[in-house]
C-alpha cells in the first residue's frame, strides 16, 4: 500500500477484523494494527456462543450479527438452529423472572424430571428457564474468518507491535508504532479492554490494566491528548476446556450474569458450559484482576460439578483466560469520540462481543465511510 490508508484499525479481535472487512469491501484502504496475533485476546479465548443478549437495547445488534455470521463462511460455521439455552440455578430463590419481553425465545420453566429429560447431563435439584437461543462456535473462528474476508478485500494486517493514536491537536493523523508515525485518514479503536490505552499514548506507568504484554508507553515526542478515563475496563474470565464423553446438548449458564453490570457487581464465578465441535468450555470467572488460570481451573471445575456431575474425573485439555472489554452500563461504545476529529471507537462489548461484534462493526464502518449510520444514542461513543 503506497499512499496512506483511509483507515487505521487498532486491534485484531472480532470487532477490528469485521470492521476492516466492511471498510475494505466498501473500497477503502485499510490497515489493521494488532500487537500480538489475530484473536489474541478474548476473541480467541471466549466460551463460544452466539446468543440472544436478553437486553432490548442490544437485540438489533444480535440479530444483524447472526445475519453476518450466516453468510460468513471461510471456516466459520454458524449452527443453523439454536441448541437452546438453559439459565440454570440450584437455588430457586435466585431464579430470574420470566424473560417475558422476548416471547420469540419461548421461555419455558423446567425442573425435576422435565429438566433432566431436556438435559440429562444436569444434576438433580436444579431449576432452569429454557430459551430458544444459543449457537455454539469455536472461540477464534469468527475473528479468523473476518480477518480472511478483510484480506480478500485488500485490507493489510501489520502484526507484532502495539499501535497508538497519533494526533495533531485534536485531529487524528494516523497511529504511532515503535515511536514512528504511520499516517492514516482516520483511526478506529477496536483494542478491546486496552482501547483506553491505545487512545492515550501519553499515559505513563500502569493504566487501569496491567498484564505482561501491556503496550509500552509511546515516546515523549508523541502528541499528548487529555482523553477520557478508563471508560472500558478488563473483566477477566477463565474457562476450562474438556472433551466430555457425554457433553451437554444445551448451552448452560448459571443465572446472575446481569448483576455483573450493576453497581454492586456480580459474583466472581458463574457456572457456564458451551460445547462447540466436541470441545466443552466450562467456566467462568469475572474478576478485575488478572487471574492465574492454572490455579483457578480446579476450583472452577469443582464448582461446575454442582451442575454437571459428569465432569468429575475428566482431565482438562486446556484453559482459556482473557479479558472482557467491559463498560459500566454493559453497552458498547460505537462511533466518533467527542472532542477529537477522525477518531472512532468500536469496543466495550463485555461478555457479548462475539454475539454483537459484527453488527457493531458494520455501524461504525458506515459512520467512518460517511454513510447514514444509525448508531443508537444509548450505544454511541459520544456518551463517554
Ligand atoms: C471467558 C470469556 C467467555 C466469553 N464468552 C463469550 C461468548 O460465549 N459469547 C460472546 O458473544 N462473547 C463472549 N465473551 C466476550 C467476547 O469474547 C468479547 O466481548 C470479544 O471477544 C471482544 O472482542 P474485541 O475485538 O472487542 O476485543 P479483543 O478480542 O480483546 O481484541 C482486541 C485486540 O486488540 C489488540 N490490541 C490491544 N492493544 C493494542 C494496541 N495498542 N495495538 C495493537 N493491538 C492492540 C489485542 O492484542 C487484541 O487482539 C467472552 C469473554 C470471556 C473473557
Give a short summary of the structure.
This protein is of the alpha/beta class. Helices cover 21% and strands 26% of the residues. The strands form 4 sheets. The chain has an 8-stranded mixed sheet, with helices on one face. Strands 8-2-1-12-19-18 form a 6-stranded mixed sheet. A 3-stranded antiparallel sheet has the order 9-10-11.
Describe the protein.
The chain has 8 helices and 19 strands. α1 (14-25) packs parallel to α5. It has helices at 14-25, 42-45, 59-70, 112-118, 141-152, 195-199, 293-304, 353-368; strands spanning 7-10, 30-34, 49-50, 85-89, 108-111, 127-131, 135-136, 156-159, 163-168, 171-177, 180-183, 186-189, 233-242, 251-254, 269-276, 279-285, 318-326, 333-336, 343-347. With 384 residues, it is α/β, with parallel strands linked by helices. The model is unreliable at 202-227 (pLDDT under 50). Flavin-adenine dinucleotide (FAD) is lined by residues 10-16, 33-36, 40-43, 46-49, 162-164, 190-192, 194, 198, 215, 237, 239, 274, 283-284, 322, 324-325, 347, 349-355, 357.
Protein topology:
Elements (H helix, E strand, L loop, with lengths): L6 E4 L3 H12 L4 E5 L7 H4 L3 E2 L8 H12 L14 E5 L18 E4 H7 L8 E5 L3 E2 L4 H12 L3 E4 L3 E6 L2 E7 L2 E4 L2 E4 L5 H5 L33 E10 L8 E4 L14 E8 L2 E7 L7 H12 L13 E9 L6 E4 L6 E5 L5 H16 L16
Parallel strand pairs: 1-2, 1-12, 2-8, 4-14, 12-19
Antiparallel strand pairs: 3-7, 4-6, 5-6, 9-10, 10-11, 13-16, 13-17, 14-15, 15-16, 18-19
Bound molecules: flavin-adenine dinucleotide.
The site of flavin-adenine dinucleotide (FAD) has 45 residues, from helix 1, strand 2, helix 2, strand 9 and strand 13.
Amino acid at each position: 500500500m503506497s499512499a496512506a490508508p483511509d483507515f487505521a484499525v487498532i486491534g485484531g479481535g472480532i470487532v477490528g477484523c469485521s470492521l476492516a472487512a466492511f471498510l475494505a469491501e466498501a473500497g477503502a484502504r485499510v490497515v489493521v494494527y494488532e500487537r500480538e496475533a489475530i484473536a489474541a485476546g478474548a476473541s480467541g479465548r471466549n466460551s463460544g456462543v452466539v446468543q440472544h443478549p436478553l437486553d432490548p437495547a442490544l437485540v438489533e445488534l444480535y440479530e444483524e450479527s447472526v445475519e453476518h455470521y450466516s453468510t460468513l463462511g471461510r471456516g466459520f460455521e454458524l449452527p443453523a438452529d439454536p441448541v437452546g439455552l438453559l439459565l440454570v440455578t440450584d437455588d430457586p430463590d435466585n431464579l430470574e423472572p420470566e424473560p417475558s419481553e422476548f416471547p420469540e425465545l419461548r421461555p419455558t420453566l423446567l425442573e425435576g424430571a422435565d429438566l433432566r429429560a431436556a438435559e440429562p447431563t444436569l444434576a438433580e435439584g436444579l431449576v432452569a428457564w429454557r430459551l430458544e437461543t444459543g449457537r455454539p462456535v469455536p472461540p477464534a473462528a469468527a475473528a479468523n474468518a473476518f480477518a480472511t474476508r478483510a484480506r480478500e478485500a485488500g485490507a493489510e494486517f501489520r502484526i507484532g507491535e502495539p499501535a497508538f493514536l497519533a494526533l495533531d491537536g485534536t485531529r487524528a493523523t494516523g497511529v504511532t508504532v515503535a515511536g514512528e508515525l504511520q499516517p492514516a485518514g482516520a483511526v478506529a479503536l477496536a483494542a478491546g479492554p486496552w482501547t483506553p490505552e491505545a487512545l492515550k499514548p501519553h499515559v505513563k506507568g500502569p493504566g487501569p490494566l496491567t498484564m505482561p504484554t501491556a503496550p509500552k508507553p509511546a515516546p515523549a515526542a508523541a502528541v499528548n491528548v487529555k482523553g477520557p478515563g478508563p471508560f472500558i475496563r478488563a473483566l477477566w474470565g477463565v474457562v476450562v476446556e474438556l472433551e466430555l464423553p457425554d457433553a451437554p446438548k444445551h448451552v448452560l449458564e448459571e443465572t446472575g450474569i446481569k448483576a455483573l453490570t450493576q453497581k454492586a457487581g456480580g459474583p466472581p464465578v458463574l457456572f457456564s458450559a458451551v460445547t462447540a465441535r466436541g470441545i466443552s468450555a466450562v467456566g467462568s470467572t469475572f474478576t478485575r484482576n488478572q487471574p492465574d488460570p492454572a490455579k483457578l481451573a480446579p476450583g472452577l471445575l469443582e464448582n461446575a460439578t454442582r451442575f454437571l456431575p459428569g465432569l468429575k474425573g475428566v482431565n482438562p485439555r486446556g484453559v482459556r483466560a482473557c479479558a472482557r472489554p467491559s463498560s459500566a452500563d454493559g453497552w458498547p461504545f460505537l462511533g466518533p469520540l467527542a472532542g477529537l476529529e477522525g477518531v472512532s471507537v468500536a469496543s466495550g462489548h463485555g461478555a457479548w462481543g462475539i454475539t454483537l461484534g459484527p453488527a457493531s462493526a458494520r455501524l461504525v464502518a458506515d459512520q467512518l465511510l460517511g454513510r447514514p449510520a444509525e448508531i443508537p444514542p444509548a450505544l454511541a461513543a459520544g456518551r463517554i
